[in-house]
Amino acid sequence: MTTAATASVHASVALDDIQGIVRFGYKHHTEACFLLLRVRDLLAARQWLAAAPVASAAAVEPLPATALQVALTAEGMHALGVPRHVVDGFSAEFVSGMGSDASRARRLGDVGSNAPEAWRWGLGARTPHVLLMLYALPGRLNAWQAAIESECAAGFDTLARWPCGDLRNVEHFGFADGISQPELDWPRARPAADAEQADYANLACLGEFLLGYPNEYGGYTDRPLLDPEQDPQGLLPRAEDVPGQADLGRNGSYLVLRQLQQDVPGFWQWLDRQAGGDHERREQLAACMVGRTRSGVPLAQATHIGAAMGAAVDLNDFDFNADPRGLCCPLGAHVRRANPRSADLPPGDAGPLSWLRRTLGFDSQALGQDLVASTRFHRLLRRGREYGRPVPLVEALQKPSTADGGHETGLFFVCLNANIARQFEFVQSAWLAGTHFNGLANEADPLLGTRQATPEGVATDSFSIPQAHGPDRRLTGLPQFVTLRGGAYFFLPGLRALRYLAWAPARGRR
Ligand code: HEM
Description:
Its cofactor is heme b. This is Peroxidase. By secondary structure, the protein is an alpha+beta fold. It is 24% helix and 16% strand. The longest helix has 12 residues, at 141-152. It starts with a helix and ends in a 7-residue tail after the last helix. The relative contact order is 0.17. The site of protoporphyrin IX containing FE (HEM) has 25 residues, from strand 9, helix 11, strand 12 and helix 15.
């Protein structure tokens, strides 16, 4: 949040209209609370939202003590009286909702104990309307939260109140987290519609995370565009791509929220049994499942790190091209599934001949490495927070698993994206829950899998670790370590759009 960072933002990007969470992780704001609200009194709710002190992405120095972020579900927009045709201009997934149908649930792996019917919140009368995310510097949360809650009391009922801290970049299983994030192209220097990306790159077009800007295809993701008469006061920014239209989506993003309960004792005790109680072996197996060591060193880069002999190394500067069989990092490791770091073309030499071979699919070496889709269309900006008291490893090895009544810990998984179907849902279903990811057979993400048998009755509770000589080592009987307790799709509007959503219907334009 420094002013130096502002210098490289393109003039067309109105940082003061973008919610801060798109640009900042609020990592210094170690105290946080998420509130799920439902509209009770329409007028009072609109009044509060119209004036809510939402923090923008503009740099502020010194750091503000508190930062409020606001997002709405489609049901929330309906409850606020936003005209149906306006809500229907958002994407179909957002409008219908995360837990809305059995087909989506099956694709996302929301089955068995993850099924929407078992959720604590997210369905029917327990669907949130508004999400408030409160971030505060140490010691500054309580009084501020009480003030916000008392202001909201007239307009909203509180469905859930979740204190969620920041475990200093370590998630509950004990791994460094928040290392890899896409880099947003704030200067808009990346050519839109860059036809072909031969190598994996971390820089992503703004339109992958913010509506109203060109995405990696060079197009603008669909969002509600309104005739100027629907915005007579000019509250909304105007669309870049359709002159004259008011752009309700611009500077906004879709926010995916999933409450993921983690069985920390279950995770470590299972690994300990596999490792025969050997500490080093247990750590190695855990690292294989994540794809990084606990301190964050990527397994795909481990030899390189060793060679660097302690020199500072960028923990995010790697891909999997040199490890096609998964000998360094198993093909099914969580980080390899979540971001296979693949480019549009399979890897190969530079030069026109190699390009032609790879484009036409004639490169026999590359064929096996071209099993996963190009990553640049499936990036997620993660903004999750942990909840519950951390369980130290010694305790985790002895305590009852959460399933047997141990205390609850977990992750509020939060990610931002401009296209829920192409980004979050694709990653979650094809890559994480997918049982044939990258040529694997009948195994899902080792951290997140539900271990439900396939429709043909084949078990999915295994994890393969390729070996240099001989067949893969295959761990079987993996329990479910993570359980989904609720979820919803929200829209995180630009600040001007939030004012519009709060007030537009009140003027009777339906
Ligand atoms: C309790 C659940 C989860 C745990 C414990 C977990 C843990 C981790 C860890 C330790 C990392 C490595 C640190 C890093 O690269 O920043 C990571 C990376 C990542 N995770 Fe998860 N994760 C969870 C759920 C999810 C879900 C639900 C998704 C997506 C739908 C996801 C997507 C990602 C992505 C995209 C990365 C970065 C991969 C890369 O770019 O290399 N994770 N996760």
